[in-house]
Write a structure and sequence with these properties.
This protein is mainly alpha-helical and 410 residues long. 64% of the residues lie in helices and 1% in strands. It has a two-stranded parallel ribbon with strand order 1-2. The protein starts with a helix and ends in a 9-residue tail after the last helix. Pfam families: Nop.
Length: 410
């Protein structure tokens, strides 16, 4: 294609037709018009994926060098039209060939591409489309630099799904407690754990069956006796078997979603340890995953300064404080980290600032470093834990730390 473009560019320069960009498309209405420009156009039109990726990066491949050297040897005084200004600069430096990049070049290349199928003989349209698609996929893979161990998109999707599952579980459990509470209201006060409550309802069904059932696998013996005693004197209403069946189906859904949530959490934990081990050690897998999801990717998060990491997730409070001229928030998503939770309320702001600074370092190490160890995160976490107990400086200490006034001596 380079030979094709350069030859056509030389012809158009001689004809001086680039002065009228709007009418340039008329020269590319049919393949015959382009073929009339030069009879030897298609000697070098096959480039491998490596050559294409080199062009994308603004580098000169071996095939391109050979073609350009031939062009330099034949027509050293002609200009070469390039679509990428960076590539034109490299060609000019290495081969001393003058290049041009302008809107006229864009129109010229667009015109050649419109007649590409007719210009390349012996290549059906389907094969041409398949070749273009294959080259596009290869370029996309190269640009993404796909690695299954370094895909933070999986973390973003997993933490979003985990939050959605928590919301759905809360809705289902509230509905189950309220629904079965009409039949056996005392059970909700005795069994506070939601999953245990649903397992009991799913196994027993009607409250009359509690007295002759064994619940030792689900709840302790003392709670089991209390449940059986409450079932005999319950004030709940009588319900039909169809109602109990629907409630049990709802309990099945709650148990299945809970099991899937536990499986998803293990997957997220393993994925976080593979992609961002230091960040995981520093703030935990859930907080780390939420930070990555909020920023969009691990690389985007690595570009944020520590002050932004500290208040990430509290943007609404930040802009409201700036608008009303009040105090800005001291923490966002990082508030849920264990180190901030262990600190007293008075020192949470200071610890969150220090933790955000250490976390920003670990994020950049995970995103841009080649090591997969979590030693840096563990070391920074130990330093942060040692500083969670902030000592108060006495008055004498302040006086001793104060520096003398500087006086300039002439």
């Amino acid at each position: 294609f380079v030979a094709l473009y350069s030859t056509v560019w030389g012809f158009v320069l001689n004809e001086k037709k680039l002065q009228e960009i709007d009418s340039l498309w008329k020269e590319f209405e049919t393949p015959e018009k382009i073929i009339q420009m030069h009879t030897n156009l298609f000697h070098h039109f096959l480039f491998s994926c490596k050559a294409s990726t080199a062009l994308v990066e603004g580098k000169i491949s071996k095939n391109l060098k050979k073609i350009l050297k031939k062009i330099v040897a034949k027509d050293a005084h002609e200009q070469l039209a390039v679509a990428d200004a960076k590539l034109g600069g490299v060609i000019k430096d290495k081969l001393n060939l003058s290049c041009i990049h302008s809107p006229m070049v864009t129109e010229l290349m667009r015109g050649i591409r419109t007649q590409m199928e007719g210009l390349i003989s012996g290549l059906p349209a389907k094969e041409m489309a398949a070749m273009c698609l294959g080259l596009a996929h290869s370029l996309s893979r190269y640009k993404l630099k796909f690695s299954p161990d370094k895909v933070d998109t999986m973390i973003v999707q997993a933490i979003s799904l985990l939050d959605d599952l928590d919301k759905e579980l809360n809705n289902y459990i509230m509905r189950c407690r309220e629904w079965y509470g009409w039949h056996f209201p005392e059970l909700g006060k005795i069994i506070t754990d939601n999953l245990t409550y649903c397992k009991c309802v799913q196994k027993i069904g009607d409250r009359k069956n509690f007295s002759c059932s064994d619940l030792s696998e689900i709840i302790p013996e003392e709670i089991e006796e209390e449940v059986k005693a409450a079932a005999e004197i319950s004030m709940g209403t009588e319900v039909s078997e169809e109602d109990i069946s629907n409630i049990q189906h709802l309990c099945d859904q709650v148990i299945e979603i809970s099991d899937y949530r536990a499986q998803l959490y293990d997957y997220l934990k393993n994925r976080m340890m593979a992609i961002a081990p230091n960040l995981t050690v520093m703030v935990g897998e859930l907080v780390g995953a939420r930070l990555i999801a909020h920023a969009g990717s691990l690389l985007n998060l690595a570009k944020h300064p520590a002050s932004t990491v500290q208040i990430l997730g509290a943007e609404k409070a930040l802009f409201r404080a700036l608008k009303t001229k009040h105090d800005t928030p001291k923490f966002g998503l990082i508030y849920h980290a264990s180190l901030v939770g262990q600190t007293t309320a008075k020192n949470k702001g200071k610890i969150s600032r220090m933790l955000a600074a250490k976390t920003a370092l670990t994020i950049r190490y995970d995103a841009l470093g080649e090591s997969t160890s979590a030693e840096m995160g563990a070391e920074n976490r130990l330093k942060s834990r040692s500083k969670t107990k902030i000592r108060r400086i006495s008055g004498t200490g302040k006086a001793m730390a104060r520096a003398d006034k500087y006086q300039h001596k002439r």
